[in-house]
Amino acid sequence: MSSKKRHKKRNFLIIMILIFASVSAALAINAAGNEKELNTNSNEKEPQQNSNEEPKQEEVEKNPDVTINIAATGDIMFHPSQIEGAYDKSTDTYDFRNSFKAVKDIFQSADLSIGNFEGTTAGNETYAYQGYPLFNAPDEALEAIKDAGFDVLSTANNHCLDTRKAGIIRTVEQINKQGMNSIGTYTKKPESRVLIKDVKGIKIAFMSYTEMVNGLEAYMDPADLDAMVNIIDETKMKEDIAYAKEQNVDLIVFYMHWGIEYARTQSDFQEQTAEMLLNEGVDIILGSHPHVIQPSQTVEINGEKKLVAYSMGNFLSNQRVETLVPYGMSEEEAKYTEDGVIINIEIEKKGETGVVSIKNIEYIPLWVYKGTDENGSPEHIVYPIDDFVESDDLNNNSKTRMNRSYKDTMAQMDNN
After folding, report:
1. Which H or E element spans position 365?
2. pTM, two decimal places
3. How many Å apart are CA 365 and CA 102, to the nearest integer?
4. Cα–Cα dist 122/25, whole Å
5. Domains defined along the chain, listed by start
6. CA distance 407 to 270
7. What are the pLDDT digits (tens) for 137-162?
């Protein structure tokens, strides 16, 4: 072979080797780049979840359950001896707070407290401050009631017209001035007869009606009477219940002034009216007027627990054995006018479902003490019996009467 041919062959091999080396290098560089990219992407991804682990669910915040307490009681009355005992001659003012000192913690600790204000606060320009038969208390009576912890006062009762139209108006105004609400009487025709209060997220509708006004309706213009006083009327009451439902309230409470004075059992009218109200959707019925304790009972309607207290008796008054027997009442009958009760009603609203129900009911029997203070003035004090029946502040006669009162009151209560 000639040297020229060998030289060409060697050059060809060198070129081929160089090409192969270049291609191999390029492939190696490309492969390294791909691997780097793969590793980078792999690092950016979240770690793969173990197939054996359950996926985590987001925590859903639930509305908490809400529980409130309603403290309800009966007739709050101011007779002449109570007005006399509260009077301070040196300042020409009245102070009724002493009467409430033993129970104010109960009312102040409740989320809402309600009672029946039996009478009027019409001032003393036209009517004197007086008791039966035409009740007219000083404004300081309402100050003491507010100080004791009351939030709502029912004013539809047989003494609401004792100082006529002007008395109705001024009484409502004075209650509102103290920061309380009134139900059952109005200064003029209201947009609605229903009071709705939101208590810690639970909407409660309150209504109040009276069976009678002692014939004093004759002194009122019929249109004013219809607008300003809730006298029991089935059509009106059903309208109020329907309105409350339209407002999506959680609870409906009726305060009823009804029944026969001094009767310790409810009348047929009370039972029939209560049955109608409960079937219409009322949850709690609170009764006043008889001035003695009548039965309190729970009933179940459509799976819901409801409460009827036909009469909660006297919360504060001068009615007792010593004042009623001289007017012809027997001691056996008169003694029950010293009895009262606070009904503590625990209401629960489930946060998850919004269902509202009566969770618990507690009865606190009361007895009204009458004596004289250090100045010789009459004093009337409402005592929760459980807390004071062993107190050294009371004599043996008072303790004996308290024990009798406790037994008779609890016998009327629904122990379920």
Report:
1. strand 356-372
2. 0.85
3. 13
4. 111
5. 66-411 (3.60.21.10)
6. 24
7. 999 999 999 999 999 999 999 999 99
